């Protein structure tokens, strides 16, 4: 009886707009997938509005902390990414426990990254870029979205592969970082194709390579070589995004959100928008909470040692 009462108590959920926290600045890749997803979730969640709240800073950990501490009522959710798996190794005073303070809903997508540069860089391809990097050691500015961001992880691996230390310039997201790259204030950046495709197509940035082991199939990026084939053997980074709620959110609410997510991931409009920018929509077991959580735990164990070996701490 209690279970029935409980589920009926939430039969009307959601009865008011749901806040979806994006832990990076508006206009970046995390914001992009959140807004596309919010659009696709609306109908399956009974038409309620899903309001995006951008809470940037500290490589995504401020936004994640806000949701970890929010009321577990289903009205505050988090759209986050691989930073869930790298932040535990980067922050010694993280304000939340990744595997204990969140309810895991489904994994949403995976997005490749591109290595891009300011148009005034005297390099027309990756080979010329690596020569320029070699010749300008100590003077290279690499933009990212803070320690814990996807751009940070990719940039860290890139520096390790080249054995070249670069000055990293952190932003509250790769949207503001892109503004400075377009202005030539920074030299290069590793960023997700959802944010770089239009800039590359319009020639406002130079594109040198993609970070996945297979070349992409989108028209704009299909001709880019992979870093792996360009000499950085085994370089392989793609950025997953997932949906989270505060620990303790009632199961009937979680079930409703997860059911709505599965419908949203099958929404042709959502798939078309995302795939046009190189994203791959998840349609395997990781759309289920338990498998999603297992996947993130494996990612924490995969990236933790890499991050620790770099000896970079954010605090
Ligand atoms: C990242 O580098 O983590 C993201 O691109 C940040 C963002 O979404 O702006």
Automatic annotation (TrEMBL):
Claim: Transcription regulation is one of the keywords in the record: no
TM annotation in the entry: none
A Pfam cross-reference name: TctC
Keyword entries, A-Z: Signal
Source organism superkingdom: Bacteria
Claim: Signal is one of the keywords in the record: yes
InterPro entries linked: BUG, Bug_dom1
Gene3D superfamilies reported in the protein's UniProt record: Bordetella uptake gene, domain 1 (3.40.190.150), Periplasmic binding protein-like II (3.40.190.10)
Family in the record: Belongs to the UPF0065 (bug) family.
Listed name of the protein: Tripartite tricarboxylate transporter substrate-binding protein
């Amino acid at each position: 009886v209690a279970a029935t009462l409980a589920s009926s108590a939430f039969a009307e959920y959601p009865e008011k707009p749901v806040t979806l926290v994006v832990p990076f600045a508006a206009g970046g890749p995390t914001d992009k997938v959140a807004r596309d997803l919010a659009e696709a979730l609306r109908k399956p969640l009974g038409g309620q509005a899903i309001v995006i709240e951008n809470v940037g800073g500290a490589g995504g950990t401020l936004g994640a902390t806000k949701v970890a501490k929010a009321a577990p009522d289903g009205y505050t959710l988090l759209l986050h990414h691989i930073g869930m798996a790298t932040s535990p190794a980067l922050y010694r005073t993280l304000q939340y426990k990744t595997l204990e303070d969140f309810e895991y809903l489904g994994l949403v997508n995976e997005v490749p990254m591109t290595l891009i540069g300011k148009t005034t860089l005297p390099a027309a391809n990756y080979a010329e870029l690596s020569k320029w990097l070699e010749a300008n050691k100590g003077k290279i500015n690499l933009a990212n979205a803070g320690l814990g961001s996807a751009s940070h992880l990719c940039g860290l691996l890139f520096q390790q592969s080249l054995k070249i230390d670069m000055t990293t310039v952190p932003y509250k997201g790769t949207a503001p970082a892109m503004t400075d790259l377009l202005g030539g204030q920074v030299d290069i950046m590793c960023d997700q194709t959802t944010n770089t495709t239009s800039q590359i197509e319009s020639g406002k940035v130079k594109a040198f390579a993609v970070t996945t082991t297979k070349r992409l199939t989108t028209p704009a990026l299909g001709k880019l070589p992979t870093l792996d084939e360009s000499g950085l053997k085994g370089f392989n980074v793609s950025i997953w995004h997932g949906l989270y709620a505060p620990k303790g959110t009632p199961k009937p609410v979680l079930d409703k959100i997860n059911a709505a997510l599965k419908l949203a991931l099958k929404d042709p409009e959502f798939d078309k928008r995302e795939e046009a920018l190189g994203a791959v929509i998840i349609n395997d077991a990781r759309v289920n909470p338990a498998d999603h959580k297992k996947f993130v735990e494996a990612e924490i164990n995969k990236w933790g040692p890499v991050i620790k070996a770099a000896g970079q701490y954010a605090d």
